[in-house]
Design goal:
The chain is of the alpha/beta class and 312 residues long. It has two domains: 3-232, TIM Barrel (Alpha-Beta Barrel); 263-311, no CATH class. It is built from ten helices and 13 strands. It has an eight-stranded mixed β-sheet with strand order 1-2-5-6-7-8-9-10. A three-stranded antiparallel β-sheet has the order 11-13-12. The chain has a two-stranded parallel sheet with strand order 3-4. α7 (216-226) links the parallel β9 and β10 (230-232). The chain is globular and about 50 Å long. The structure holds iron/sulfur cluster.
């Protein structure tokens, strides 16, 4: 299935997710990625699946009364899908629901990517670094992407785009939370001119287990330096749309392979299906694994490639 949800999103309300790319296909390999390490790192665009098949999956799960946004995101960098512009246009034509794209913005230096993303209403983009060195250590981009080129792409896109840009800065302790790093980020943001800026921290199990959010004082300092940013450091709340799912196992595996579930969220889904014992059975059979991160227990599919804490 390429479409899932709607899932509760802190910024998009009830967001119906669409993933047009294979799991963990990305131009970055961010140390904090909640999907684990990148399996397939590339910058070349492809039609990974027939575009009609993706659209058909959206049709299956769409609930126009309960969907605030159709959001292209999911399993990596959606701009790697060559059909993204067509898919956005079809969604807007068929369902008249605003379309958002969650992107790492690294491919905006390519004209065809800018062209496709211009079809969206909101671009949720990312900028975690204001220098080449931090960029390489934190986002671990494909070797062919340089910091200046990535930034220039974002600046060019801003000039051509009439939709809204909501830019997120993910803070990681010891990587980009020093005054110098934060000032570099601020300078870059001033060039991009997004409508909104969000400061967030890793809340779900990261690709590298040593990744931690900065201490509260540094988060406050980040707000002072970056200025007028909204805080996105809390956990999301709300219910997951269970759409087409007819059994609890598939629902939990599908959702948590894209959006690691807090154990309490997974148990609430189990309750809805009135299937007590399913999660424990999947844990005992090693279909699911429990991962502790910041004293919260998450459930992940056992096959996820992560750091050494995968088997906890
Ligand atoms: S956080 Fe996003 S941009 Fe970074 S590796 Fe994961 S999917 Fe790619």
């Amino acid at each position: 299935m390429h479409a899932y949800g709607p899932v509760p999103s802190r910024r998009l309300g009830r967001s119906l997710g669409v993933s047009p790319i294979p799991l963990k296909t990305c131009s970055y390999n961010c140390i904090y990625c909640q999907l684990g390490r990148t399996h397939r790192q590339q910058i070349s665009r492809e039609s990974f699946y027939p575009r009609e098949e993706i659209l058909k999956d959206v049709q299956k799960v769409i609930d126009t009364s309960k969907t605030d946004y159709i959001t292209f995101a999911g399993d990596g960098e959606p701009a790697l899908c060559k059909d993204l512009g067509w898919l956005i246009r079809q969604c807007k034509k068929n369902w008249q629901i605003p379309v958002a794209v969650i992107t790492n913005a690294s491919l905006l230096f390519m004209k065809d990517v800018r062209q496709d993303l211009k079809e969206s209403d909101v671009l949720l983009s990312k900028l975690d670094a204001g220098s080449e060195d931090v960029f390489r250590r934190l986002n671990r981009p494909d070797n062919s992407i340089g910091f200046e080129e990535m930034l220039e792409g974002q600046v060019d896109f801003r000039q051509e785009y009439s939709g809204k840009i909501w830019l997120e800065v993910m803070l990681v302790a010891g990587l980009n939370d020093s005054d110098i790093s934060l000032m570099d980020i601020r300078k870059a943001i001033e060039l991009i001119k997004p409508e909104e800026i969000y400061i967030s921290v890793p809340t779900r199990p990261p690709a590298e287990p040593w990744v931690m959010p900065p201490v509260p004082e540094r988060i406050i300092r980040a707000h002072e330096i970056i200025g007028s940013a909204l805080d996105l450091t809390q956990y999301e709340s709300g219910e997951f749309g269970l759409g087409d799912f007819t059994d609890v196992r598939t629902a939990i595996i599908e959702i948590c392979s894209r959006h690691p579930l807090r154990e309490e969220q997974a148990r609430a889904i189990e309750k809805k299906f009135a299937k007590a014992g399913c999660i424990d059975e999947m844990l005992s059979k090693n279909i699911l694994v429990r991962v502790e991160y910041r004293n919260i227990s998450y459930l992940l599919p056992a096959g996820f490639v992560r750091g050494p804490h995968t088997g906890d």
